[in-house]
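Anyone able to model this chain together with zinc ion?
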Amino acid sequence: MAYTVSKLKDYSASAMEKSVADCIRACAIEAASVHNDAELKIFRDRWMARKNGILTQINDLWLKGAPKDAKREAGIRVNELKARIQKIIEGAKVSRADSASAAAERVDISLPGIRRPIGAEHPVVKTTNEMVRVFQKLGYSVAEGPVVETDYYNFESLNFPPNHPARDTQDTLFIAGQQSKPQRERLLLRTHTSPVQIRTMEKRRPPLRIVIPGVVHRNDPPDASHSPMFHQIEGLAVDTNITFGDLKGTLDHAMKEFFGSSVKTSFRPSFFPFTEPSAEMYVSCFICGGSGRRGNDPCRPCKQTGWIEILGCGMVDPNVFEFVKDNGYDPRNVSGFAFGMGADRIALLKYGVDDLQLFFNGDVRFLRQFS
Ligand SMILES: [Zn+2]
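re: yes, here you go
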C-alpha cells in the first residue's frame, strides 16, 4: 500500500522515531521500484513537490500541529528526515543509471561470437616457403640480409667493378643525396639477394650451404611481367671440390621435388658477372608436359617450346672468393656454385596467373583464392 502522511498524535521521542523510520523505509522501497525516466519523475514529484509533496505534508502535519514544548525536537527530526529522503531520491537516479548501463553491458552468451578473418599465406610467400623447404631438406640453412645495401655488397664484391657494363642490366634505385660518399659506400635498394652471399661468407667459414629468400627492387615500370619490387630465392654452396656436376644434381633434384618427379632439366650457357661458367636452367613445361600444346591450343607459358626458364646459376667466380679470402674462401682451396630464381615468376607459373600486378594490388578477392 502506498505511503501516506498522517497527523502525529504522539510527540514522544519513541513515537517520532518510529514515524520517521516508517517514512524512510517507504521512500526507500519506492526508490527501488523506479525503472525509467517517467517513473523517476513521478517518484520525485510525489516526495519533493512543493505543493502537496510528502515532505511538504510532513511539514504541515507534523510540525505545524506540534505542541509548543515538542516543536524544537520535532523540527530537528523533520530536518533529519528531509535530508535522508533527499539522499534516497538522489540515489534513485544513480541506481537507475546503474541498471541502464548494466543492461547495455550485459553479455548474451548464447549469441555467436565475432569471427575474425583468418589470414593465409600470400601465393608468393607460399611459393618461397615451399622452395626454401626443398633446400632445407638438403641441409641448406636460411640466410637473410638488408634490403637497403651499399654499392660494395650489391655490385663491387660480386665482381661488378665500377663502370662495368653489367651494372646497366640491373636498373638500380639509389638512395638520394649520396653523391658526397665514395661509390662503394653509397646506399641503394638491393637489385638481387646476392649481397647476402658475401655477407654470410664474411661471417661464416666454409663449408657453407645457404638459401636466401628476399625482396629486391629494380627501376622497372610495372606491367604484366615486371614490378619495381619482386622476390628472389638464391642459393650458395661452398666446399672443397664442388663441381658443376654437384650444381646440376642439386638443382635437378630440387626441381623434381618442387614441380614433380616427371620434370626434366636442361642447362644452357649464359653470363653473370659473379659466376663462371654460368648457365640458365630450364625445366620441361609442367603445364603441357613438354609437348608445347594444350589440346589444339598452343601452350603459352612455355611459348610452345616445351621448356620454361626457371633460374640462373653457375660456379662461383674466383674473383668473388677473393673478397672473402681471409675468412677461409681462398679460391685455390674451395669452390662453389650459386643459383637464383624469381619467386614471383614461379608463383605465376604454378598458379596459372597471367598478370604479376595481381600479386601486389592487395585485392582480397584475388588473394582469397589461394587460402
Ligand atoms: Zn608448355
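The chain is about 40% helix and 20% strand.
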